[in-house]
Amino acid sequence: MNIRHSVLALFLLPLSACSEPAPLSSLYAQTLRAYPAPDAFQAVAVDATHFYAVNNFSIGRHDKDSGELQGSWDGVSAKSGPIIHLDSAMVYEGLLYAAHSNFPQWPMASSIEVWDVQSMQHLRSHAFVDPLGSMTWLDRYDGFWWGGFGNYDRIIPPRLQAYGETANTVVVKMDDEFNILEQWRLPEELLPRLRPMSNSGGSWGSDGYLYLTGHDHPEIYVMTIPESGAVLRWETTVMVEGFDGQGIAWDRDELSPILWGISRADAEVWRLQMPSISLP
Question: Model pTM?
């Protein structure tokens, strides 16, 4: 087992002015444990007893204490469709919800896919009409569904144009039928941390902050919904040694701030002790 440790910061540095980038090194997370998980390539979801490692076409259900694989769903045979590119996932009322897209195919298509966590049987799908990008994450918070639609500066042959352009990435708030009620763009100063890819993961903390990740950097971005306007506020950043973003999930069955993430390079699921955040 590959266990990494980093120093847990004891205080928060002063925030920059709103017109300046948020600090990149004010807070640190501590990696408590790393679990081998062959499917840990896109994201992880978690409930009271298990974590779920998410790959493009497959999901592994692991015991939360031992890490033992105790169930799976395998869609590799369907990699040409209908399941093409699973991304972040979360568990709500005994069901596993995963964001899904046809990335890198064009034109973009996105859906939400649903499994029963006990049987790991795929139950249903919700396809978006005219999606705002490739759906990369989904979460349930404050009585609503929330999600991210990624767009990319990356050029994917044979196309000669960027795959949607990173600046067009949006975070959305949805009702119980996944109708989009509101949407926000990411602040311009955050975009260089995401390019040429996009926002990859998102999960609401019990502290009322929205935690977002990119595709490459060892960083988790702490965001808030603005009181006015249509651009999220980037408040601060939590650094995670050896981390590379991707899908994350808050553990809502823990009293202490525990966040789950993955290491693609090591095919591991990580259990992280997050710092407590208190902003003015």
Answer: 0.90
